[in-house]
Write a structure and sequence with these properties.
Helices cover 0% and strands 26% of the residues. It is mostly beta strands and 109 residues long.
Length: 109
């Protein structure tokens, strides 16, 4: 998978997330020692940053389980400056329900 800047991103696997009783199979990126989920949801563009948000996670333990805490979602660097380019959420990473957790959008003072 390639980011907008043309940099290749490693995709170590897929993440199956249960949200609101429904399972979603999502793509995650490797970023150093972390994993990053680039996602959009029903709030994207209206209530939260368009085109989407990021969620950084530790890799799974030996049991293969990851903790996904959308409260830690954040606006990507491209939300703060036109000098950054960020990957946009893959189609499978677009949730049809609202995730009203974590950072929603940049607030300029």
């Amino acid at each position: 998978m390639r980011a907008d800047s043309g940099h290749a991103k490693s995709v170590p696997g897929r993440l199956c997330v249960d949200v609101g009783g429904a399972a979603y199979d999502m793509t995650i990126f490797a970023d150093g020692d972390s994993l990053v989920l680039v996602f959009a949801d029903a709030t994207t563009g209206a209530e939260s940053y368009a085109p989407g948000r990021f969620l950084r996670m530790d890799p799974p333990g030996r049991d293969g389980v990851l903790t996904v805490d959308f409260n830690l979602a954040f606006v990507p660097p491209c939300g703060f400056s036109d000098f950054y380019s960020c990957p946009i959420p893959a189609p499978q990473n677009r949730l049809p329900l609202p995730i009203r957790a974590g950072e929603q959008r940049v607030r300029w003072a």
